[in-house]
Structure formats: C-alpha cells, structure tokens
Amino acid sequence: MKEYKINKIENKRILGRNAYKNDDALPLFWGGAALEVNIKAREIWACISTTYDNLEQWLAVEINGALVSRFMLNKEKTWYCLARNMNPEKENLISIIKDTQPMSEDSTHSLVIHALGLDEAGEFVPVAPRKYSIEFIGDSITAGEGTVGAPDEMDWICQWMSASKTYAVQTAKLMDADWNTMGKSGWGICWAWDGNRDCKIPPHYEQVCSVLKDTNSVSLGSQEKWDFNGGRGSDFVVINLGTNDESGMNAGMPEEIISAVKQFLTVIRSHNPDAKILWCWGMLKLHSVPSLIQKAVEEYKAESGDKNVYTLELESLDELEKTPQEKGSRGHPGYKTHQAAASKIVSSLRKM
User: Fold this and answer.
1) Positions in the chain whose pLDDT score sits under 50
2) CA separation, residue 182 to residues 62, 100, 187, 302, 340 (Å)
3) Which helix H or strand E contains 136, and what residues bound it?
4) Whether the Cβ atoms of residue 28 and residue 18 lie closer than 8 Å to each other
5) Which of 175, 177, 248, 263 could be cross-linked to 195 through a Cys-Cys bond (beta carbons 3.0 to 4.6 Å apart)?
6) Residue 256's pLDDT is what?
7) Sheet order of strands, 236-240 included
8) How far is CA 255 from CA 169, 232, 250, 251, 277, in A?
9) Burial class of 33 by CB neighbour count within 10 A (0 to 12, 13 to 18, 19+)
10) What does the alpha-carbon distance between residue 160 and residue 153 come to, in Å, rounded to a whole number?
C-alpha cells in the first residue's frame, strides 16, 4: 500500500464547513461533512483518529453514491480498509462521510482523517465538479437522528443517528450539488426542545462549528469564521428549523420566534448574496410554529425587498410511515419520510 497525506492529494473534494489550510490531516466537524476522492485502484484505505468520552463516532463510506459500509471508529489512529478488489481500470468516486453530529454533550469530540492509502498501482484522478452547492441548516432531522434502528429504540445514542441517510444528502445528490450541513439534535431557532435558550443554531451560523468548544476541537478550527465558499455563498440554502421551538414554546413567545427568523434570514442573506433560500418544516407534525415562520418570511421579504425566500411544508412521518420497516427510531422520521422530503424539496428548488 502507498500512503498519501491529505495535502498531497490534488484530486479531492472537501464537503462541509472546515478550517482546513492544506495541512497533513483533515478534520470533519458537522454530521454529513465528507472527503471525496475519485480513484482508479484495486483498494483504498483511510487512516483516521477520533476523540470522545462516551459518545463514539461513526463513519459512512459510499462508492459512486451508494452506501457500502457504516462503522464505529477507534480513538487511536487506525487504518481502515474502505474498499478492495475493485476494477483498477474503472473510476470510482469514494465518499468518506462523518455520520455523527458534533457532540457538544461530550467532553471532547473530533474526527481527523490523517491519510489515504492505495495499492501501489492505484491513482487519484480528477473529481468531476457538481452543478450546484446547497447548505442545509437544521436540528435532529438534519443530523439524521432516528434514521437507523428499530422503531422501539429510544436510547439517545450515536448508533441510531446517520447524517448520510438524511433528506439533506439525498437532496444534494438529486440536484447534482455539493453539500454543507449543520444539524444539532434538540436545537432550534430560539431555544431547545426543553426551552434551553443556550441551544439555538443562529448564533453559530458564522463559525465553522462553534458548538464544539473543547480544546482539541478549538485547535482544529471549530471557532474560526467560516468563509462561505470563499465568499461566494451557496446556490441554495435549505432551513429545516422550528420543531424544537414548538416543543419549548410557552405563551407570549410567538413574537420572539418571528423576530428571530427575520434576523436569521438577514444574516444568511449577507453571506449568500445570490442564493435561493427555502425554509421548510413538517417531517414531524407541527401546529403553532409554521404560521409564525410564514409570517416572519413575508415580513422579511416586505421589509428587505428580498424576493428569493420561500417556504415549504413537507409530509410528516404520520402520513407516510405505515409499517415497522418504514419507521425510524426514537420517534423520528425514517428513511421513507426523508426520501419524500428530498423529492419535494428538489421539485421546489428546480422551480426556482
């Protein structure tokens, strides 16, 4: 096997927010962040290390967009065989995806890819550019909670979460788009599912992954400013927030949600000047928050003159999931609901 440090691999694509500066090793922060390489080789290996206390990290590996493996990672540097016995004359796109959301609940949380390895005759070939770039912002649904496991699994543990299975990644694939996701279980626009005001997404939007504050994550760049694709921003921004705000909302709080949505849209627009922005909800049924989001969007558009902001209600798991095989774990949407959401979002984006 021939070893290649990440900065020595010219033909690669990094997906997700990062502070990578052409170093030897590549950190991945948010769930769904990925390293992609196109190879002509018999086999490919990856040297990866993680840090965590109780909440271990998982990795998903795809070949040409199809999942081939998903596994738990060791803490120490370990070489993992991602694929072998492939046809060396055929090009294969290898996607190495961080499947676990950033766990601020743990004392430390990092995942670093140190190197890749190919057989001696293997080579990296150019990665074909994609047509669009899409940013996804959300909560547990965007983080992939419940996309793995039987319906009666209710433990909040990493093995029942898979960012690579979400509507976000599916949408990006259908749109032929690079993706960038930020999703955190239980977090909202203004507060968390339990009303905790420290757990909200908007204050973290302008940083790489500032929900991670441990020393190791900070040294890897979690607190640094995100450059928003070199200042160009994304072609589309899809927001799927509001579920936890409804759970944690008390009487008298609607105006706060309306104000926060408008402020967040203003910040998003400042970093994505040409993007079509879509705010969606509904994979878990909501009652109060959707009307507040719609009111906020209309007020924002009227006040700012920004017409490129849209809303979309998605089908809920209650409408779609009828059999145990279709249901997700932890009362969250299963793969069928994520598929339906991706299809509806893609239809909406293409109309834009």
Assistant:
1) none
2) 20, 11, 11, 28, 20
3) strand 132-138
4) yes
5) 248
6) 96
7) 177-183, 132-138, 236-240, 276-281, 309-313
8) 33, 32, 11, 10, 22
9) buried
10) 8
Give Cβ neighbours of residue 68 (< 8 Å, ≥ 6 apart). Answer: 61, 62, 82, 83
Question: Within 10 Å of residue 48's Cβ, how many Cβ atoms?
Answer: 25
Check: CB of residue 111 under 8 Å from CB of residue 57.
yes
Q: What is the pLDDT of residues 146-191, one digit of tens each?
A: 999 999 999 999 999 999 999 999 999 999 999 999 999 999 999 9
- What is the chain's alpha carbon radius of gyration, rounded to the nearest angstrom? 20
The single residue listed with the structure tokens 């936890």 is 244
CB atoms within 10 A of CB 273: 11
Per-residue confidence (pLDDT) for residue 22, from 0 to 100: 86
Q: Which one-letter amino acid corresponds to residue 285?
A: K
How far is 335 from 214, CA to CA, in rounded Å? 33
Whole-model pTM over 0.85: yes
